[in-house]
Each structure stands twice: as structure tokens, then as C-alpha cells.
Amino acid sequence: MVKEEQGFTNRPDNTAFTQQRLPAWQPILSAGIVIPGFVVIGLAFIGIGVALFVTSRSIQVLELDYTGVETNSPCFKCSDPDVKPCTCELNFTIEELFQGTVYFYYGLSNYFQNYRKYSVSKDDEQLSGDLDNFKTPSDTCEPYEYDSETKPIVPCGSIANSKFNDTFKLFQVVNGSTLKLVPFNGKGIAWWTDYNVKYRNPSVSPLKDAFNGTVKPLFWPRPAYELDTSDPANNGFINQDFLVWMRRAALPDFRKLYRRIDEGDYKQGLPAGNYSLNITYNYPVLSFDGRKKVVFSNVSWMGGKNEFLGIAYLVIGSMCVFMSVVMLIVYAKFKFPEEE
User: 135 by DSSP, 3-state: which?
Assistant: First the structure.
């Protein structure tokens, strides 16, 4: 009797919810529902896939390698690390108008920004403008935490220390000899959240005073407060190029936005013709068998050039249609008589 009472005390309440007596609906999947469903889904995927594929094919992309490994490369002389400073020129021709805003990227290959020790090698508190971390950087920045004289490095860490520092100038060749500078627009190339939320400069004016007692990263030519000498508002931890570099890439072959071409005579795009790209070659990549390139590209409503997405939709849509045909054949041949 005692056992019975103990058993009843653990019984759920006698309600529709706890006893699972709520109204329910369970669809009965029949051939008349499944086969047309597969056809509709397949055709929808094929339609989307065609639209994505055609749009991707219409995007214009021009890639130019300037690593300088080949002896006939115009940047071959600059691949020697002892030749500093070094500049080289890439001459190329655009056959037809690059329509709309043209995005200019630099690309690196065999560069593992996703390596864990590298990707965590920064001080988030320091990069958010905390002056305490200017004097005592986080241990995660090791070995780029202090210099040989134990002075704190700001910004510290491997990511900041390895910031890409090649620079570019683009000229259009007019009438065979005259060089016309193509204006680059470097505003708004970083993520809005990085510029307005994640990274902040110290509330010190002038900004240079906040860096007293600190040193610049070892491989930087100038300190953080002088990254952009032409625009005082584009210095420190909110420098656009710095923000772009600090957002790590997931794959070893990647490209990052350097500038946009959308101003002046080039607002409608880059016209067909001859161009010369002047490169200040600073960034070493041969030590890890890497390569460097520049990429010119425009975009569409779906973003940059990516044929894989359209092909994936086409394949899945075709498989759905194919399976619907197979199921129709099987159903027509082996269907069971309806139950009375």
C-alpha cells in the first residue's frame, strides 16, 4: 500500500498537455503529394541556380600576380629582401568597360591567418582604447608583447605586427604616354561594427600622447597614430587598412579590400584602355612559399563572382526533378491497389 502511494506521487497531472492528449495533425505523405512537391522544389532551385550562375558570369574580374618569382616579372627585382625600398610597375590592358564601382583587392596565398596561436595574438582591451593595457599588454600577444628593451608594443600581437604594407597607385595611360592618376577611395572599406564598436582609440588628444612610453610593432614603418598622414581621423586603431587586416581570413588563400574606384571620371567604372599599377613592394611572402596578387572586380546584387553557388542550386534542383521522375516510374509500376 505504501509502494502504491509512492508510485502515485510521481504520476504527472491528469491534463491534456502532460498526458499528451492535445489535438495533433500528422500529414500522410502519398505519391500525389511527394512527387509534385519534388518537381516544384526542383524547378524552383533550377530557376534560382540559372539566375545566380548567369549573374556570376556577368561579373568582371581581373587578377594580376606580382610576387616576382619569375625572372620575366616586372617585380622580380623586388623579391630580393635585401632590395629595400623597391617599387615596380605592372602594365595591363582592360578590353572593355569595368562597369559600376570597381573594387580593388590585394590577395595572399598560403597564408594561414586561421592558425590558432596567430588568430588570438592580440589584446582586445588594448584595441578598445584601454590605456591600462597600453602599459601592460595581454599575455596573448607573446612574443610581440614587449620589445628588446621591455617597452610595451602598441598594438601588440602577431596579427598587428604582420599587417600588410604594400601600397599601390593606379594610372591610366592616355594617348600612349600621359599618365592620369586613377583616384582611390579608402573610406568605408572596413566593417561598420569594427569601426564603430569593436575598435576604439583612447580618449586622449592629441592621439600621439596616448602612445607615450610605448613602441610601434617591430615590422611597422610608422606608429599607429601616423598610419594615415593625409587624414588625421583615419589613424590609430580605427585606421581602415588596419581594421581590414585585423579581420582574419578563414582560408589560406584570401583577398582583402584595399580601395574602391568610384570617384571623378571613373564613377561609372574603369574604361577600356591601358593602365599602369605602381607598387611599393614591402611585404615578404617567399619565406613561406606565398604569393601576392591584386584583383579588380565589380559586384552584383549577389555579391562578388561565385559560380559555385549557382552550380550547387542547379545540381540540387536537377536531382530533385530526376528523383521525382524515378518515383513516378516506381509508383506507376508497383503501386498498391487502394484500400476500400
Answer: helix
Show Cβ contacts of residue 324 under 8 Å, excluding neighbours closer than 6 positions: 35, 36, 38, 39, 42
Amino acid identity at 17: F
Contact between 84 and 271 (Cβ < 8 Å): no
> For residue 295, which of 259, 269, 247 has the smallest C-alpha distance?
259
**pLDDT per residue as tens digits for the range 22-34:** 888 888 888 888 9
The Cα–Cα gap between 246 and 199 comes to 10
- Cell numbers standing for residue 128: 578598445
Nearest to 299 by CA among 107, 106, 102, 104: 102
Instruction: Give residue-wise pLDDT tens across range 243-281.
Output: 999 999 999 999 999 999 999 999 999 999 999 999 999
- Asked if 145 and 153 touch (Cβ cutoff 8 Å), the reply is yes
Amino acid at 44: A
The CB density around residue 199, as the number of other CB atoms within 10 Å, is: 22
Phi, psi of 45 (to 5 degrees): -65, -40
pLDDT at 5: 53
